[in-house]
Amino acid sequence: MRLSYSAISTFNQCPQKYKWQYIERIKAPTTPDLFLGWLVHLVLEYALQNAPAMPPVNKLLELYNLRWNPSIFKDSAIEKEYHQAGAEMIKSFHNAYAPGLSTVLNVEKFFEIRWKNHLIVGKIDRIDRLPSGEIEIIDYKTNRKLPSESDFKFDFQLPLYQWAAQTLWSNIDKAKLTLYFLRHGKKITPENIKTLPVLQGYILETVEKINTSDFLANPSPLCAWCEYSNKCPEGQSVSHNSTDSRDNQPANSSSLSLGVGDWRTKNGFPKDSLFRDLN
Question: Which of 17, 144, 223, 243 is most solvent-facing, going by the fewest CB within 10 Å?
Fold first, then answer.
C-alpha cells in the first residue's frame, strides 16, 4: 500500500475523509489555513533555492503577492488578516536567516521508504547540515498556537522524518528534528518522540484498519477545518456548534499536505501546484 503521513493521519481522523481524498480523489476547495500554509511554504522554498544566498525580502513578497488568491476568503477583513500574517512570517524568516550557522542541503526533499510491501512517501521542508556535521530536519509550521510538550506524545510525523533521514543517509544514527513555528519565530526540538517500533506498529495498525474499514464519518471538533465539510452532514453539524476555527487551530496540526513540484518558470518563480497530489 502507498502511504504518506497525511494519508495515515487523515484516516485516523476520519475514514470518510480518507475515502474521498485518497480513494475517490474528490477535489475539494482549499481552506484559508491550507492556502496560507501552502503559499508561505512555496515562498520559503523559493527563498532558499540558491542557498546560502537569499533574494531580498521585497522579491519574496513580490512572489507572495503574485500568488495571493482573494477568492479563497469569505470577506475582505479575513483576507487582510491572513495576508498580513503571511507577509509577517516571510519578513521574520528573512530577518532571522543566518547562513553561516548551517548549510542548507535540500528543500522540499521527497523521500520513499519501502517496508513490508508498503511504500511510505513524503516531503521534508528543509534539511540542513550543522557545523558539527549533524543533520537537522526542519518542518515549517504556520500555526497560530505553539504546542505544549505533551502534544508531542501523540505525534508520529517527527519519528517518520527520523526514519526518512536514516533512509536518505544510511550512515547517520539520528537527526536533529526541529519544528519552526513561523508566526512566532520559534524553533522547537522536542525531547520525547515516538520510537521507530512504535511508529511502525501504528502504521501497520492503520493499514489493517483501512483494509477492513467501512469508511464512515467520524465527527469531531476537527470538522471545523475539513475541506469536505460542505458535503458532509455529520461534519456540518459539528462545525456549526464550534467557535471561530481561526482561533482554535490545533497547536501541532499539519498545516500543509499539498505538494510543490517542478517550480522554475521563465520569471524564476515557482509554478502553481496547489492541487498537485504526491500522496
Answer: 243
Name the DSSP class of 192.
Answer: -
Q: For the beta carbon of residue 74, count every other beta carbon within 10 angstroms.
A: 9
Residues recorded for the chain: 279
Closest CA to 249 of 174, 167, 151: 151
Cβ count near 57 (within 10 Å): 16
Q: Is residue 116 a contact partner of residue 156, using CB atoms and an 8 Å limit? A: no
The string over 2-19, giving b where at least 16 C-beta atoms fall within 10 Å of a residue's C-beta and e elsewhere, is: ebbbbbbbbbbbbbbbbb
Q: Where are the domains of the chain?
A: 2-247
Assign domain 2-247 to a CATH class. Answer: alpha beta
* Alpha carbons 128 and 55: distance in angstroms, whole number: 19
Interior CA angle at 262 toward 257 and 265, to 5°? 125
| Residue type (1 letter), 229 | S
Name the pTM for this structure. 0.83
Q: Render 64-77 in DSSP notation, one character per residue.
A: HHHH--GGGSSSHH
pLDDT in tens, 55-96: 999 999 999 999 999 999 999 999 999 999 999 999 999 999
